[in-house]
């Protein structure tokens, strides 16, 4: 019954989800407190109090048929204008409501923009390690994902390898900073070089190449690191933002696309993306959540809690002999496997009731992802198990 396109998806059903199920199974056997599940990127800090307060206030103050009704497929105009102005204040941009399209989270934002721009056979470049769903999103529109191999010294993008992969079929490039799974933030210098490469290639090839900046982790950055705003570097940029991590609202499915005036055929792209939102079946982003985020433009997730987890887990793992770069953002550590086959390493971890995700789930074998969006207590309880794993490998 199912389509040919769905068959491989069913077979490769995400390793992350499988790991989650395994966690539940182990918890039944050993007790939840003795299983250290670092597999999922589900925020553990609660949404900031402004969110619940906004929901209550909206229900009390705003007209029910307005709050729960249809609106423009691109979202409420006042919400889009408020988001545009808040971005302008923070990043000295010049956006207006016509640049902001409300989406059902980043996953949907990515699908909307890819549906809007891809023709069958078009190529989309991304950098390993990457969020594996990108491949599925691109294939939804019969595009082809082209992967730039990782620079495992820094996990910054390998720009030489990038430039050599751009060709006539290149329609888009996806970047993700702060990055899942490495926690790396792309610096001003990296973005500048990337923009120079893209601008030169556009001229040489006579094509438009869209840089899609997938930014669900923008607000999760540590040690005062700057997360540059990508539209300022390259005109053909589309930003894909989400409140899933920044306000701990992953189940509510709310985010937006920024389609700047500087993008080639901007108005047409915006109009087409609005239709894509509709015909993909989203119709519009959840109405109540749109009104909530407008009231929460200054609210912040408890980044300090993630930072505390980051410092504790990073220092401990390094002291046990593991190798890992210190993440500057997001809530993941990308740890080098002590043996070449990281899946075998995951099995050893599981023996100690530690669940981590193999790097091959991010097109980067030889590493594992450890999500530290968990309670501080879980981190403390897990440390003897991590130490035992290190000893087993003679680190
Ligand atoms: N992009 C990346 C890099 C992610 O890690 C995730 C979720 O974990 C998403 C997109 C999807 O986020 P959303 O919940 O906004 O759809």
Can you tell me the residue ranges where pLDDT is under 50 for at least 5 consecutive residues? none
CATH T-level fold name of the largest domain: Aspartate Aminotransferase, domain 2
Order of helices and strands: HHEHHHEHEHEHEHEEEHHHEHEEEH
> Order of strands side by side in the largest beta sheet?
2-8-7-6-5-3-4
Number of helices: 14
Q: What report would you give on this structure?
A:
There is one protein chain. Helix 7 (133-140) links the parallel strand 3 and strand 4 (144-148). The protein folds into two domains: 7-47 and 301-392, Aspartate Aminotransferase, domain 1 (Alpha-Beta Complex), CATH 3.90.1150; 49-295, Aspartate Aminotransferase, domain 2. The protein is globular and about 60 Å long. The mean pLDDT is 96. It has a seven-stranded mixed β-sheet with strand order 2-8-7-6-5-3-4, sandwiched between helices. The protein has 395 residues and is of the alpha/beta class. The chain has 14 helices and twelve strands. Helix content is 42%, strand content 13%. Bound molecules: pyridoxal-5'-phosphate. Residues 41, 105-107, 131, 176, 180, 214, 216, 242, 244, 250, 255 line the site of pyridoxal-5'-phosphate (PLP). Pyridoxal-5'-phosphate (PLP) is lined by residues 41, 105-107, 131, 176, 180, 214, 216, 242, 244, 250, 255.
Blueprint of the fold:
Elements: H1 6-11, H2 15-30, E1 36-37, H3 49-61, H4 64-67, H5 77-91, E2 100-103, H6 105-117, E3 123-127, H7 133-140, E4 144-148, H8 159-165, E5 170-176, H9 188-205, E6 210-215, E7 237-242, E8 255-258, H10 266-279, H11 287-295, H12 303-319, E9 332-336, H13 342-351, E10 354-355, E11 357-358, E12 367-371, H14 376-392
Parallel strand pairs: 1-10, 3-4, 3-5, 5-6, 6-7
Antiparallel strand pairs: 2-8, 7-8, 9-12, 11-12
Helix pairs in contact: 3-11, 5-11, 6-7, 6-10, 12-14
Bound molecules: pyridoxal-5'-phosphate.
């Amino acid at each position: 019954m199912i389509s040919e396109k769905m068959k491989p998806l069913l077979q490769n059903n995400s390793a992350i989800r499988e790991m989650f199920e395994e966690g539940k199974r182990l918890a039944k056997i050993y007790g939840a407190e003795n299983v250290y599940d670092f597999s999922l990127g589900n925020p553990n800090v609660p949404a900031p109090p402004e969110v619940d307060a906004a929901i209550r206030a909206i229900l009390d103050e705003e007209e029910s048929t307005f709050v729960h009704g249809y609106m423009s497929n691109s979202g409420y105009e006042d919400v889009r204008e408020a988001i545009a102005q808040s971005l302008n204040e923070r990043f000295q941009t010049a956006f207006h409501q016509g640049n902001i399209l409300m989406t059902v989270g980043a996953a949907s934002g990515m699908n909307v923009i890819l549906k809007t721009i891809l023709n069958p056979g078009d190529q989309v470049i991304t950098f390993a390690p990457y969020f594996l769903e990108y491949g599925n999103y691109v294939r939804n529109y019969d595009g082809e994902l082209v992967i730039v191999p990782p620079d495992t010294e820094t996990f910054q993008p390998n720009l030489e390898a990038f430039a050599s992969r751009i060709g006539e079929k290149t329609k888009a490039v996806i970047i993700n900073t702060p990055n899942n799974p490495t926690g790396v933030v792309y610096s001003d210098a990296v973005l500048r070089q990337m923009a120079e490469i893209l601008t030169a290639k556009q001229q040489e090839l006579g094509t438009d190449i869209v840089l899609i900046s997938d930014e669900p982790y923008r607000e999760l950055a540590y040690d005062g690191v700057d997360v540059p705003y990508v539209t300022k570097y390259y005109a053909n940029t589309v930003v894909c933002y989400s409140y899933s991590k920044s306000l701990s609202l992953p189940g509510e499915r709310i985010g937006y696309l920024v389609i700047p005036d500087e993008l080639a055929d901007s108005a047409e792209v915006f109009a087409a993306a609005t239709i894509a939102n509709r015909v993909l079946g989203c119709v519009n982003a959840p109405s109540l959540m749109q009104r909530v985020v407008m009231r929460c433009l200054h609210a912040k997730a408890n980044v300090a809690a993630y930072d505390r987890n980051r410092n504790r887990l990073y220092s401990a793992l390094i002291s046990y002999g593991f190798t890992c770069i210190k993440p500057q953002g997001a809530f993941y550590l990308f740890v080098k496997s002590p043996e070449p086959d990281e899946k075998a390493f995951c099995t050893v971890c599981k023996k100690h009731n530690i669940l981590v995700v193999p790097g091959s789930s991010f097109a980067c074998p030889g590493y594992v992802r450890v999500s530290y969006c968990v309670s501080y207590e879980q981190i403390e309880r897990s440390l003897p198990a991590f130490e035992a794993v290190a000893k087993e490998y003679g680190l």
